[in-house]
Design a protein that fits this description.
The structure is a single chain. The protein is an all-alpha fold. The chain has one domain (25-251). The protein has helices at 13-17, 30-56, 62-81, 86-111, 119-139, 147-172, 185-214, 221-251.
Length: 252
């Protein structure tokens, strides 16, 4: 059962263990999962563009960002325990996530309007370029998802999560760790490391989806796995955007 492990908590073995086969529902497939991911991505783009337009005309977007983040977090927790509801909740999660992505993109666009007016477009292109590269690396088994690879990824992502948690707690007390923002070599180095881990996490997701399809997981798990893949893609985009911000910040 070790093959069913994933660094993405939404695609863990426990999540697949909660699945129930429904008569006549069929089984999930890799292609079906990617198709549903494409649909979820379009929903993310729809609300992201809406918030982007709101920001472009000077309207406040803070409410969209906070509401989307809280709502998305709640839905993600529900989905992790109720994967059978993914066909209904995953689209809602995508819409809420789009509010967050649109807000973050607008903030970076305004912050780097003079230094790097195309920073958001660059982040989008790099995100999809990286995802496509990871897909081919996985498909042609150039990088194999072995037990050692999984162990390293678990440790790396656990360390990143702990780092985020510590910096968040410190920020509540007015202490800001110089590691994620700014143009220092430290911030750039940390951004590169986290971006690489986020990119490699896609390999884990692809492997988990393939294993689920091979095991004959129920059809609705395509929605759940598409949701899990979307989580990783959003993470990758945000980290690439942060990395570009740090690089341009150093040149500013």
């Amino acid at each position: 059962m070790a093959l069913f492990n994933s660094s993405n908590p939404t695609l863990s073995e426990k999540s697949f263990g909660r699945t129930i086969h429904l008569p006549g529902s069929g089984s999930m497939s890799f292609r079906g999962t990617l198709n549903k991911f494409g649909f979820l991505f379009l929903m993310v783009m729809a609300t992201a563009f809406y918030v982007w337009n709101e920001a472009s005309v000077g309207n406040s977007i803070q409410g969209y960002m906070v509401g989307g983040a809280i709502g998305g977090f709640v839905l993600a927790l529900v989905l992790m325990f109720k994967p059978g509801m993914a066909q209904y909740l995953a689209p809602a999660y995508a819409l809420l996530e789009g509010l967050v992505i649109g807000s973050i993109s607008a903030i970076y666009n305004n912050a780097f309007a003079k230094v790097a007016p195309g920073i958001v477009t660059q982040a989008v292109v790099l995100t999809f370029g990286t995802a496509i590269a990871m897909y081919f690396l996985y498909t042609f088994r150039i990088i194999r998802v072995t037990e050692r690879f999984r162990s390293i990824m678990f440790a790396a992502i656990g360390g990143i999560a702990l780092f985020y948690l510590i910096t968040f707690i410190l920020s509540l007390f007015g202490v800001h760790v110089q590691g994620l923002q700014g143009g220092s070599m430290l911030s750039i180095g940390i951004s590169i490391a986290i971006t690489v881990i986020a990119a490699l996490s896609l390999l884990m997701d692809f492997d988990r989806i393939e294993q689920g399809a091979a095991a004959g997981a129920p059809k609705y798990m395509e929605w759940y796995c598409a949701f899990g893949l979307l989580v990783t893609m959003v993470w990758l985009y945000v980290e690439i955007l942060r990395l570009l911000g740090n690089l341009y910040g150093r040149r500013d």
